[in-house]
Specification:
With about 400 residues, the protein is α/β, with parallel strands linked by helices. It has ten helices and 22 strands. The radius of gyration is 23 Å and the shape is globular.
Amino acid sequence: MSRRNATLIFTLLSLAVPSVAGLQEEATQIRSAVIVRADGSRLERGVLKFQDGKIVDLGARVDPNLPILEHDGVLTAGLIACQSMSGMGLEANDDTRSLLPEAELVYSFDPSHSDFDEALAAGITTIVLPPNGRNVAGGLTAVVKTEGSVLSSAGHLALSFSEKAISFAAARPQFFFAAAQAGGIEETGSSVQGTRSPTSYGGIVAELDRRFQVPGGSFQLAIQGRLPCYLEAWERHEVLRALAFAERHGLKGVVRGAPLASDPALVSAFKQSGFGCVVGPFTIGQSRSSLQSVARLAEAGVPLAFALDAPAQAPINLRFSAAMAIAAGADPDTVAKALTIDAARIAGVESRVGSLEPGKDADFCLWSGDPRNLTSRLQAVYVDGRLVHESE
């Protein structure tokens, strides 16, 4: 059932308690068999209190003066995907220029798109929307909630060191008219494909080096440490080049890609740079070295989050990627944090979401069991203290 008509029936301890809909604006408490804290520890028969969209308290004490909802399962913070193309239309694409540092991806966000209903049905409450990597400077990522609100319209400056950003052909306009004399088609415009600069990896670095010397704008905010960077890099040499560039300019942020980051040289480069890594999504047949990158990076203290890549991948793939990483040796608690609080830190929204702490947004999920176990079923999702999804 979608967020638009979701309803949920819980066992109420008091016959005088108003309906769930009536509870949304006043203080409410949920007692769950297990609540997972930010550090991964588990609170047995914990009580989460929330009011006006914010978490008020997390502990063991039930307030006898408040309505209470009972949940015989696991309660966690909402899941966070640090990359997805969910609901993004043509506004996210501009193939005419290689550098668009001030473009705001938030304008491609369509909160009514069905992709976000599907994300909620998988327990995903926050998503980072980046450019597609075909532009050397693709603009500013957006961090949005899947129920329709925007957390940040300038999450990161997105830069691409990947092959996609090289030699991308931009088609010139073509115009065709009927040829009066020949009765055929006459081409009155050029059909020649123009090669867009830069056309080499060295060209990417040289162009960005130049742009980072220009005062003002997103580039200077990144140098000043006021705007983290989102670097797309896949091949080993791309990752090393991206991290070396970031270190030279004093940048901070995250690398999206790096499927072979279990390579000791890449692990060392990540550790030295202070950059995090957005891994996945993983699928059937994923190489073991790619899956082991999660464990190797985590052991080196590299912050991690998971990519979703919807709509190409179904939202359930976020949990599937996490389960595959655990099966390949990653610590389960580290993976859980990569789906929640560490992902929130990478997205720059940890003060609002990612963990169940007083003062943060009341974004949480109710599961039948541990969500790291794919047999566990999602039962309900709350965003800002409102019920937005109920599983049938």
